[in-house]
Every structure is written in C-alpha cells, then in structure tokens.
Amino acid sequence: MDCIFCKIVKGELPSTKILENDKVLVFQNINPEAPVHILIIPKKHIESMNDIQDEDLLLIGEMHKAAKEAAAKLGIADSGYRLINNCGPDGEQTVFHLHYHLMGGRRLGALTG
Ligand code: 5GP
Ligand code: ZN
C-alpha cells in the first residue's frame, strides 16, 4: 500500500517524532502552519474519519490522550491549541491515513472555513 504515513510508522520515511507508543505516533508536520503544528496518527491504517469502526473507538481515545500529552510536552497545554481532522474533498484531506492536526503556539483566530 502506498501510504506515506504507514511508511513513517514503519520507519521507511523519516519523521521528527514527539511521542510514540504501540498504538499511536505523534510527529512534526513537514509544512507547519503555526509555531506548533504536529500530526497525531494511529499506527493502524484507517483511511479517514468515515472509516472509523466500533473496534477503533479505544484507539481514537488513545489519539486524544497522545494529543494532550504531546501538547504538554511541547509546553502549550495551558496556552491552548486546536485539534483538527480534515475529512474528504470538502475537508481538504490530502493524506488518506486518519490524522489529527494539533496546532498552537500563537492565537489561531476564529474558524473561518
Ligand atoms: P491533510 O490535508 O490530509 O489533513 O493534511 C496532511 C498533512 O500532512 C499536511 O499538513 C502536510 O504538511 C503533512 N504531510 C504530508 N506529507 C508529509 C510527510 O511526508 N511528512 C510529514 N511530517 N508531514 C507530511
Ligand atoms: Zn496508512
């Protein structure tokens, strides 16, 4: 399967890791749009938010836990941050391996769409 995030999980592509456990990987976005812009992914390949199954619900919780732990590790837990999932064409999803963007380190402004 030709998935760049699966390749990052397997170590076939480089990444700057923030946190890792057996289920979840958190790494720097290659093209950051904020002082902190990291990606939270499940190690399991799930294409998008639309493909989450009941059996994945614990894993989704693990992603949220890793997100808040990464925010704390990067020192932005108290200043705050934003967690975003882009799904499908209207969501501007470009990598079809489920991920959350965690952005912070500055005031992000109101959501504009
Ligand atoms: P999407 O638009 O699918 O929600 O976001 C995909 C994100 O993945 C983009 O913000 C992009 O900068 C990031 N990205 C794409 N390819 C790579 C890569 O090879 N390494 C890293 N670290 N980030 C990537
Ligand atoms: Zn994948």
UniProtKB/TrEMBL annotation:
The keyword Hydrolase applies. One of its GO terms (molecular function) is hydrolase activity. A motif (Histidine triad motif) lies at residues 97-101. CDD domains: PKCI_related. Gene3D superfamilies: HIT-like. Keywords: Hydrolase. PROSITE patterns: HIT_2. The active site is at H99 (tele-amp-histidine intermediate). Residues 4-113 form the HIT domain. Pfam families: DcpS_C (PF11969). The keyword Cell division does not apply. This is HIT family hydrolase. It comes from the Bacteria.
